Amino acid sequence: LVAVNCAAIQPSLVESELFGHVKGAFTGAIADRVGWFQQADGGTLFLDEIGDMPTDVQAKLLRVLETGEVTPVGSTKADKVDVRVIAATNRDLAELVEEGCFREDLYYRINVVELKLPPLRERRNDIERLANEFLQESSKALQRANMPRFSRNAIEVLQEHPWPGNVRELKNFVGRVLVYLGPDEHVIGDRLVRQLLPKNLVRQPAAEGDAQDGDNPPVDFKRSRAEHDLRFFAQVMRSLPEETKKTLTATAKQVGMTREALSRRISALFETYPDLREDPELRILIRR
Hints:
The chain is mainly alpha-helical and 288 residues long. The protein has 3 domains: 2-110, Rossmann fold, CATH 3.40.50; 124-206, Helicase, Ruva Protein, domain 3, CATH 1.10.8.60; 219-288. It is built from 12 helices and 7 strands. The protein has a 3-stranded parallel sheet with strand order 1-2-5. Strands 3-4 form a two-stranded antiparallel ribbon. A two-stranded parallel sheet has the order 6-7. A hairpin with an 8-residue loop joins strand 3 and strand 4. Helix 6 packs across helix 7 (152-160), helix 6 packs across helix 8 and helix 11 crosses helix 12 (259-272). The radius of gyration is 22 Å and the shape is elongated. The two termini are 38 Å apart.
């Protein structure tokens, strides 16, 4: 099994990484390189975050899947490969097709057997276990003297949150909680959790006289997710150390994306919901 994170590769290098290159194919190509497809020949290639693959590379990937032949960058010779491809993404590919960010023909070509992992908001019983595991992992990474725990009320708040970013968002959030938690504090309460979660997606404690659930207007989950993602990126950018220039490059590194993938994501969200550009908290993401 050869695993590749498409979002972690610079767009200019994706083709070379996948299909290989020959010496002299471009500046810096000082020797021949075997690509991921050739390395996976006779086995399985796992393409993680395929939704972040540049569209020009998508066309070449489609050709490889249809012909079973790989042509290294700078070469005219095609190599036959026998590879089973498994692709994964946390994004809605059908929606990306509608937005013109993902090729429709490639979408149907890879969508042979589809396995859908239910989003975290539909697996609320898993949230407590995952949050505690991430808490232990992050506490050890930060070398905390004590091992904190979530209060029962804090767990309930976590279980009510929709988690549009799923498990990855939960893991990042737990790490952020530890940054704000005092070194001598042992219990993470619901107050801190509510403060750090996006305000528009947090269910606040009910006050007497509040409207009943049936009186509330329907929630636009696509817009809520878009706004949540943008606020998360903005919060990460603001939390960068003072000595670090607050750029998309530094922010992308913190969230585990390439600068280009993060830039495309932010641009797409602002294009879909242009009114969010006027939000004072999100302006930090513009022209970075």
